[in-house]
């Protein structure tokens, strides 16, 4: 819409509220009075009504794929929940400390991967 055919009386949100009957009665009367004289806003409102009607008639297509929702409680638990217990973490920490102690606690610089 160019500036010659643009109306600045109402924001698009006001026309949407009017269309969905979500505005106050005083605002609705004001929009009604404006629509009686402004063909630009009336055309915009008619376009919005057409889109609303098309959306109400539209039904989304069925997906062409199958979706299955799986929960943690549906089957056997993951292996790491039964195999990796807190004792593995403690054993690893103990091995690091013992290795450090065995080397005499000497710092040999940063560990490089």
Structural notes for this entry:
By secondary structure, the protein is mainly α. It has a domain at 7-57. The protein has 5 helices and no strands. It has helices at 12-19, 25-37, 39-57, 79-83, 86-102. The relative contact order is 0.07. The model has no long low-confidence stretch (mean pLDDT 79).
Helix-strand layout with pairing:
Blueprint lengths: L11 H8 L5 H13 L1 H19 L21 H5 L2 H17 L11
Main sheet overview: none
Question: What order do the SSEs take from the amino end to the carboxyl end, as H and E?
Answer: HHHHH
The helix/strand class is mainly alpha
| Fraction of residues in H or I helices | 40-55%
Give the low-pLDDT segments. none
- In round numbers, the mean pLDDT is 79
């Amino acid at each position: 819409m160019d500036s010659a055919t643009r109306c600045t009386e109402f924001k698009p949100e006001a026309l949407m509220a009017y269309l969905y009957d979500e505005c106050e009665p005083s605002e609705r009367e004001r929009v009604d009075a404006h629509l009686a004289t402004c063909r630009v806003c009336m055309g915009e409102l008619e376009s919005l009504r057409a889109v609303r009607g098309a959306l109400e008639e539209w039904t989304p297509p069925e997906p062409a794929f199958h979706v299955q929702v799986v929960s943690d409680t549906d089957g056997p638990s993951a292996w790491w929940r039964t195999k990796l217990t807190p004792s593995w973490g403690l054993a690893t920490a103990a091995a690091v400390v013992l290795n450090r102690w065995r080397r005499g606690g000497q710092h040999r610089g940063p560990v490089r991967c």
